[in-house]
Design a protein that fits this description.
Blueprint: H1 3-18, H2 22-27, H3 31-45, H4 56-66, H5 72-85, H6 94-109, H7 117-128, H8 163-176, H9 184-201, H10 208-223, H11 231-234, H12 236-245, H13 260-271, H14 293-296, H15 307-310, H16 322-335, H17 343-350, H18 354-366, E1 370-372, E2 381-383
Antiparallel strand pairs: 1-2
Helix pairs in contact: 3-4, 3-6, 4-5, 5-6, 6-7, 7-10, 8-9, 9-13, 12-13, 17-18
């Protein structure tokens, strides 16, 4: 079965996942179930980057975990037993998809994370131990991969002799980077470049994209981003293809590497935008006068989210006073989902003193309307987009 046919099959199976009951867990309000639903949904969706799809048995097992009937550890043991009972069940590498999905769900459910090269390599080891002989090992050979999106051409991946140095450099440089303080929009171009460059190193022979995606999600969450949504789960193949386009240049055909597609993906992930993420738009021969990708890309330099386009109010519970609702609305109209704010900004926008500003922030945190954002200084927050 060709890679393209496998990809098409995986995409169809991802479409089946979209109709799966996991949606009810992602949407409902109990934090544990919501986060577990997201973890499982993302874990299964990421298998599409290698043309794989999880089994129905895994989906049933995942639901038991989400409902609290079993732990993730017990879910992993059930999956291992399921395949040990019969080798015939491993059709189209479903065993790999199921085992790795359990492990991704486990990692995404954990709060611990260290932004480091050993953590990156360790994630690969955890995901693929017993699946690949090279789990947790940096490749010692050069590679090329024919890409559908490049008409069969390949990205120039990192040289095997330099992979450790390249990883060390990228992680160190990212640690030293001083992110803009004003908005998420200002951060996205840099994040797109960082993840694109990390992926292009291709430190591992197999499982590189899944490892990079899990590491990147953990990194975003460690900075405070609320990324518990379906963007990765439903657009995993687009994510990989956007990384391919970010690292390919062929001047003879007028093609230059570009992170614009990664940025569209990240704007959906981090800002809740609804940019159309179609794989055919990424193909190097995609041409259609009516479809101008640059027109679908929102103004990256615009620091303020278009509130009218995304909804101009937030849902506030009935037990909140009219004045408090009005204050929350004013803050949302000022900052939207894009801009960071703290007590000083609240005081300025609402013309109130420090004490009531602190009380209001505390109340919004209790209602889960906002969440703390790390790395932007003490006491910075973002409005939480409803799921």
């Amino acid at each position: 079965m060709s890679r393209m046919v496998k990809m098409q099959k995986a995409v169809r199976q991802v479409d089946d996942i979209k109709r799966d009951p996991f949606e009810e867990y992602i949407r409902q309000s109990e934090p544990d179930k919501r986060e577990l639903g997201y973890a499982w949904y993302t874990a299964m969706g990421l298998q599409a980057v290698d043309g794989l799809a999880a089994s129905d048995y895994l989906k049933k097992t995942a639901k038991k975990n989400i409902e609290g009937e079993i732990t993730i550890l017990e879910a992993g043991k059930l999956i291992e037993s399921y395949y040990n009972e019969s080798e015939e069940r491993d059709a189209d590498r479903t065993k790999e998809a199921d085992i790795v999905s359990v492990r991704i769900a486990a990692i995404l459910s954990e709060s611990s994370f260290t932004f480091s090269v050993p953590q990156y390599i360790g994630i690969h080891r955890r995901l693929f131990e017993g699946v690949y002989s090279h789990a947790g090992k940096i490749r010692d050979y050069n590679i090329s991969k024919k890409e559908w999106v490049l008409d069969g051409a390949s990205v120039h991946y990192g040289n095997a002799l330099e992979l450790q140095e390249m990883l060390d450099y990228d992680i160190r440089t990212e640690k030293e980077y001083d992110y803009p303080q004003n908005s998420v929009s200002a951060i996205i171009p840099h994040l797109a470049r960082f993840v694109s460059q990390l992926w292009q190193i291709h430190a591992f022979g197999e499982g590189n994209t899944r490892t990079t995606a899990v590491f990147f999600i953990k990194y975003l969450r460690s900075m405070g981003f609320d990324v518990t949504n379906v963007t990765f789960a439903e657009n995993a193949w687009y994510f990989r293809n956007s990384l391919v386009r970010a690292n390919f240049t062929d001047l003879s055909k007028g093609i230059r590497e570009t992170t614009e597609f990664v940025e569209l993906f990240l704007r959906n992930l981090l800002l809740g935008e609804t940019n159309e993420l179609k794989n055919r738009y990424l193909h190097i021969r995609w041409k259609e006068e009516k479809q101008d990708i640059r027109d679908t890309k929102q103004d990256i330099q615009n620091a303020k989210q278009d509130i009218d386009r995304s909804g101009n109010h937030v849902e506030v519970t009935e037990d909140v006073s009219r004045k408090t609702k009005q204050h929350i609305q004013e803050l949302f109209e000022t900052f939207g989902y894009d801009q960071f704010f703290g007590r000083t900004e609240v005081m300025k926008v609402l013309s109130i003193t420090a004490s009531p500003a602190s009380v209001l922030i505390k109340r919004m945190l209790e209602m889960k309307l906002i969440y703390p954002f790390k790395g932007r200084g003490k006491g910075k927050y973002l409005f939480r987009r409803g799921k």
